[in-house]
Amino acid sequence: MAGFNNIELITDRPLIDNLKEIEEVKKYFPDHAVIASLMVETREQWIQIIKDVENAGADGIELNFGCPHGMCERGMGSAVGQEPAVLKTIVEWVMDAAKIPVITKLTPNISDIREPGLAAVQGGTDALSLINTIKSIVGIDLDSYAPYPIVDGKGTNGGYCGPAVKPIALHMLRELAQHEKITKTPISGIGGIETWRDVVEFILLGASSVQVCTAVMHYGFGIVREMEAGLIQFMNEKGYDTIYDFVGKALPNVVEWKNLNLKHKVVANIDADKCIGCQLCYIACDDGAHQAIKITEGNRIPEIIDENCVGCNLCSLVCPVEECITMEKRDDGTQHLTWAERTEADTIPTDFNDDRAGGKGHFVPTVQDALKHRKG
Asked: Is 324 a catalytic residue?
């Protein structure tokens, strides 16, 4: 399961029912935090609903400025999250009225997540959370020609969630966690979290808490126990007492491309004993990458052409056998040169035929030889 597409809107249950349940949960679980997710329109409505959830016993509130479907058509959800000035104004309304901590939930449906993030911080929010769902259409029915899910022969865009959105969530989390004016604001990470490794990755990129929804829908609440067990084992192995010991620990290693070491070299290695001869790596590399894998006549086990391999990792990703293809470091670690340094030294290539661009001597079969091979 890669993800779900959600076209539901704000709850259709009466507010009084939700308030009663908040009271009940706090009654039976007084030592656990209850956060109320809120989305209304006017200032008066915000003030009233904040009072209601506070009186019901909520420990905090989360402002839903992220939903990309339905509610945004009524001026809520992502319609707010995409307008930093409006977002800041509403956060200020809430902060004036709220007596409990406030989390502002951001939409990923925006070109620069730092703008609404900064607006929320300037509005006084106590914390941020991200990401909400991604605006999407997941497919078209080939009989009715309507997008899924189909509603009486029609469809609409929805909010996409689940493991597929995790890379986007991690990227946006990092963007906020590295922002100099946001670094002191706690961030709750959301998006595709379903294993303890996912939890650790979000924490390493700056989240001091995480939220899980789709994984619970898929596996049930028991998935949380597995996450906790894995997280505790990781912390014991690394010698961490609390998650705050490693919040943001990966951030210094996230740099701009121009600051990566061009002298770093890795080459693929195929374990012949594990290889099942499916040749998926050969097909992927020959048709979509660097023609760095060859097949010797009479032998189904592929071989790496070292001088062609650029360490792109495609072969290991398509290989169905775990640890059959690994990437081996070939540089000795003594050389370090970045594109930024080359730019400063004026040694970057100026055209496609510049000798300084590299890539010369890379073996590529002639069209005639390639056609002969295909026919064979």
From this structure: no
